[in-house]
Amino acid sequence: MPTGLFYHAACQDHLTPDGHPESPDRLAVILDRLDHPDFNALKKIPAEAAPPDRLALVHDEDYIRHVTSHIPGQGHYDLDQDTFLSPRSMEAALGAVGATCQAIDQVMAGQIDNAFCAIRPPGHHAEPGRAMGFCLFNNIAVGAIYARTKHFRHRVAILDFDVHHGNGSQSVVAGTRGLFYGSTHQSPLYPGTGHVHDRGDGVIVNSPLAAGSGSRAFRRTYSERIFPELDKFNPDFILVSAGFDGHAQDPLADLKLMTDDFFWIGAEIKQIAGEKCQGRMVSCLEGGYNTAILGENVAAYISALMR
After folding, report:
1. Which one from 125, 165, 185, 247 is the annotated catalytic residue?
2. pLDDT per residue over 234-261, tens digit each?
C-alpha cells in the first residue's frame, strides 16, 4: 500500500506578520519538493476540514470560543507575542485537524500504509486552554484522542522529534491513561518544559539534548531510552510530531542534526510500527523554519516512510 500525503489548501491561508518564521512558504516548499518524480508513488490526498466540535476532544470550550470570536476581518489578532490569528486561521486549523483525522481513518481502513500530514499551523505547543509557540490547536493530541474514541486504539503513542518540547501534547498525555509521549528536544530552549522526571497518568519519556548535540546523541537517546520505553508500552497506533527545526541550518535552535537523521528516524519508527501495530503510523508537520532546506528534510523523512 502507498504512503499518503494529506494536505488542505486553507493551511496556506493562515497568515502571520511579515518576517515571522511560521509562514505559508513552509508548505509551499514542501509541496514543491514532493512534486518531484521520486514521489510519484506518494498518494496525495486533499483533506476535508474537521467539524469544529472535534477540537473539543482536547480543547476547552471557552478557549475554542475565544479563538473563534477573535478571528479578524483583516490583518492580525495577537493571541500571544508569537501566535497570531488572520482572517482564515480557523479554516486552516480545521483543515489541519481534518487532515490528521482523515489520515488516521485511512490508515485504520487499510487504504494506505502510513501517512504524512503537510499542515499548518503547527500544534504541539497548544495547551487545552491556551495558544502557544505559533500553535492554535493541538493537531497531534486531537488525533490521539480521536484514534482512541473513533477507532478504539487503547495504547496510542506520540513521538516528538521537534527541537522544541511539545508542552501541549505532554499536558494531554499527562491527564490521559493509555497514551505515551516520547520527546527529544534541545534544552534549555523554549518553552522550558520537558524534564526527565516528568510523570502523569499516561507514559511520559523526555530526553532533553544540549545545544550542539548532533546526530550521534540524537540517535543514541532514541535507541537507548525512548524506543525501549515505547517497546514496553506496546502501542497499537503511533503518531509522530515531525519537526525539522533540529537541523543544523535552522534559525531557531542549535541541535545540529543533518538531513540523514530525518531519514533515520522515519525508518526506525516505521520499523517499530510494523512490529507493534501493523505499520499504523501518522506523522504531522510541526516545526522547520529554514525554507531553503525544509523541503529536502521532509523529503528524506517521507522517503523512509515509503521505503
Report:
1. 125
2. 999 999 999 999 999 999 999 999 999 9
Q: What is the pTM of this model?
A: 0.98
Cβ-Cβ contacts under 8 Å for 150 (sequence gap 6 or more): 101, 104, 105
- For 284, the grid coordinates are 504531522
Q: Residue 139 is inside which H or E element, if any?
A: helix 139-151
The alpha carbon dihedral of 99, 277, 208, 163 has a sign of negative
Q: Annotated catalytic, 125? A: yes
Question: Phi and psi for 57 in degrees, rounded to 5?
Answer: -60, -25
Q: Domains (ranges, CATH) in the chain?
A: 3-306 (3.40.800.20)
How many other C-beta atoms are found inside a 10 Å radius of the C-beta of residue 36?
11
**Longest CA–CA separation in the chain, Å:** 50
Q: What contacts 36, CB < 8 A, 6 or more positions away?
A: 299
Residues 6 or more apart from 210 whose CB is under 8 A from it? 186, 187, 217
